[in-house]
Amino acid sequence: MTPELLPPQSYRFGLLGWPLGHSLSPQIHAAALEASGLSGTYHLFPIPPLPDGAGLLQEIIERFRRQELHGLNVTIPHKQTILPLLDGLTDQAMAIGAVNLVYLEGQRLLGDNSDAPALLLDLQHCFSLQNQVGTALVLGAGGAARAAVYALLQAGWQVYVAARRVEAAQRLVADLAPPASVGGMDPLASLPLGADALAKLPVCDLLINATPVGMPPLADSTPWPDGVPFPAGVKIYDMVYNPAQTKLVRSARAGGHQAANGLGMLVEQAALSFERWTGSNAPRPAMLAAATDSLDTIG
Fold first, then answer.
1. Using alpha carbons only, what angle is made at residue 103 by residues 176 and 121, rounded to the nearest 5 degrees?
2. Among 48, 94, 154, 203, whose Cα sits 20 to 30 Å from the Cα of 56?
3. 253 and 127 within one domain
4. CA angle (125, 130, 135) in 5-degree steps
5. What's the number of domains the chain is made of?
6. DSSP β-ladder status, 71-74 and 101-105
7. Residue 2 lies in a domain
């Protein structure tokens, strides 16, 4: 909470992206508001990809500037397309080149990225990775992938980025690569998201799906190529959380691998957003319970 703005009588938060039918964010934030004794609502703003959604995106931003909204989360496909509409970015968001959290500071509309710290926290929770680093493979090259790569590099991992659009992966590497290699080995490199390239990957300790493949309307699909075995001993983290067991997670567990979905990451980034918007400590247990109950109801 900034000193220039008084707390509203009733908070109005929201999520913009496309599609949003799978989102659990309204339930999570409703639980947070109730547990904190605050009044408010959390709305979904489905905005198609640009150029079709340009007018709607601009309209939501203008509503925020008029303080009709007090906080916005951003998801696929607008984590990067929203950047030109903001007045500034935190250092973390600027380094990542994507935002998932928008807030007002004084009269300035600012973007931050809570995906990166949320991911690291949940990886530690799911796989007990405290003080452990190795080689990670991130699937995808969008805003979620950028946050994952940034977080892993900051923690000391060597990272490969694989995307179907190789040029997007190469651009991500160019944007986020550290200035110097470590021990003669590049800490960040790209490769095609295809069977031949992935089968030749020498070692992989952690696989992260940062693509939307696995969530509706692609719930019956997996980003991992058919016929390619998972690397030996790899831990698999799917940022998709709805459905709770994606095809990727099911395949990983069937092969004897540890696997987790992104529900914990979702709750943690929501908690960080809630704290930024309200200045109150986020009631994480209540938020996680709401997310879990909502998934169980859907399932």
1. 50
2. 94
3. yes
4. 100
5. 2
6. antiparallel
7. no
164 and 244 housed in the same domain = yes
Annotate 204-239 with b (16+ C-beta within 10 A) or e (fewer): bbbbbbbbbbbbeeeeeebbbeeeeebbeebbbbbb
Q: Is residue 194 within 8 Å of residue 225, measured between CB atoms?
A: yes
pTM of the model: 0.92
Give catalytic residues, as residue numbers: 79
Residue 284 sits in the same domain as residue 227: no
286: Cβ contacts below 8 Å, ≥ 6 apart: 31, 32, 34, 35
Assigned domain for 99 exists: yes
Q: Is the pLDDT of residue 267 over 50?
A: yes
Residue 178, preceding peptide bond in cis (omega within 30° of 0):
no
Residue 289 lies in a domain: yes
pLDDT in tens, 205-242: 999 999 999 998 888 999 999 999 999 999 999 999 99
User: What are the strands, taking DSSP E only, across the chain?
Assistant: 11-17, 40-46, 71-74, 88-89, 101-105, 108-112, 135-139, 158-163, 188-192, 206-209, 235-238, 259-261
pLDDT digits (tens, 9 = 90+) for 177-198: 987 555 556 899 999 999 999 9
Q: Give the chain's largest Cα–Cα span.
A: 58
